[in-house]
User: Fold this.
Amino acid sequence: MSKFANGKINKLDAYVPGEQPKDKKYIKLNTNESPYPPSPLAVKYACDELESVRLYPDPDCTNLINAIAKTVNVSPKNVIVSNGSDEVLNFAFIAYADENNPAIFPDITYGFYKVFAGVNGVPFEEIALKDDFSIDINEYLDKNGVIFIANPNAPTGLEISLEDIELLLKSNPDRVVVIDEAYVDFGGKSAISLIDKYDNLLVTQTFSKSRSMAGARLGFGVASEKIIEDLNKVKYSTNPYNVNRVTAVMGIGALEDNKYFENNISSIIESREYTQNELKKLGFTCTNSKTNFVFAKSDKISGEELYLKLKENGILVRHFKKDRISNYVRVSIGSFEEMQAFIGAVRKILGE
Amino acid sequence: MSKFANGKINKLDAYVPGEQPKDKKYIKLNTNESPYPPSPLAVKYACDELESVRLYPDPDCTNLINAIAKTVNVSPKNVIVSNGSDEVLNFAFIAYADENNPAIFPDITYGFYKVFAGVNGVPFEEIALKDDFSIDINEYLDKNGVIFIANPNAPTGLEISLEDIELLLKSNPDRVVVIDEAYVDFGGKSAISLIDKYDNLLVTQTFSKSRSMAGARLGFGVASEKIIEDLNKVKYSTNPYNVNRVTAVMGIGALEDNKYFENNISSIIESREYTQNELKKLGFTCTNSKTNFVFAKSDKISGEELYLKLKENGILVRHFKKDRISNYVRVSIGSFEEMQAFIGAVRKILGE
Assistant:
């Protein structure tokens, strides 16, 4: 830190992305990317757009927003697009959290919520998951502040029901509830269907996982018109051109090519079920993941040791040095062949 | 606004980007874009990268940072890249401004500084330009806070000398000075040469104008290692993957293709001089612009009327409804043919 940094910056604990080692070629199952390339239509639209990059993007992202609105069946006025869904999550912190409205989220969840609280200088409260990693919604009902729930949750992979989300929304209509659906396409149920009924609901999704566009940075939020207005005010006060031209047209291509999307989802779910079954055969406990990763532990090897031995064997998974989950590894679902290689490596490491 | 928004958001006056009307095809001289497409090498690298978009970008942007460092002749440790230079400017607000350290900038300058102060909830002070629109550096020497100077300044097009910038840096070594060099490639002198001498200097530049990449969103900051550490802490706390994969490789291509860059700069400067000369022949007063725009006024027609009549004639320029400059129009430099068309339209409007 420099001597110039203000107090907020000195205290910051920045987010640590999954490692990207460059020493050798790994089977990369550590950052929940898709094993499949973006849709050929997205790639075609991108190529066609490159000459136009001399011009600023449309700050309103009209075409992309129309395409998203059509896909999730809402009005374009209910949609904002962002530079990854992280950005719209941060906009929600900026717009709704303050010293009297702490951010509230589970103790085990996406690590960035805590970081957003820090960088925005707002308080936060973590509510412990139950022993089985499920969320007890009753613990949230009387909390004041802004609630952030990843559904399905990460890294546990577990979902909560729309009934629970409705309970939360109804219990305090003056409180914003953010449902982060980064993984919803892999088997969860979206809360977008509730936005007409609850004006305090913001749902966020991303093109990073199910649409194979992690490297393009595209996310979006769906909410009541008033919430979208707030978030747009933040967008136009920080980064009006937050979605670049190439990413915008790739997003449109990815949405138009629905068949490609659905095929990829099916393959990933199939590989996930294969992976979980094989792990269980090897004595692992797995959560009931509705995502593109599995979260698993074994009594025969610690999470850290398994992570390290897999790395030695050329396979990267994610391990969190955090109480209650330090015995687990999170394994992103790659191609079927990659998951076979992963299971083979686990078998070898366990000596089975 | 929703009823949920906090006090900061309610007070926000968001930035208003230059208009992008879709009713007909305009000669677009209103947002300081390049008339030339991005370098063919940048386009080639982008096409080659599209399949890899399924993977997250390198958060450290190592290859791009190395290329920038080489180009501006500093160590990679002195460079941060950002989603447009707006983002690194905002990072500086987040890291250095607070209630005791207001942001300080000229009363006529890039409109976003004031917006960044608002969204970060920090105070700001505007210091009046002299009547000839030049900056009186003496007025800044004893100010406490964080100083933001666009050099060359927008929309005036005027530059201040590196000697003045050194005065500012020396007068208070405990104060960060940000020099925003969005337009420096068109004839200004960069302060990057001073970063080894002054650890309180941050210089920002962009690929939007001189490198024809406004639609790709790429900017960067150059400063002492400690300042870069601060800004990276903010980056990793808001948007670790702020530069997407396609933009990163386009940036590298644009830097490698230096000949293309230099040719474009020469053409734009030539067209700027042509435009200023022709305007002067028509009785206009022009500032001594070192940028890719001219800033001009005429006694024969108000700035607003000229803007409106040009728009009727299919030419978009920028007019600011702001005291002291409301008689001016800001005209981005397009291709030579576009500038001939612009001069022709002005001649027609003035009846000459």
The radius of gyration of chain B is 20 Å. The longest strand of chain B covers residues 201-206.
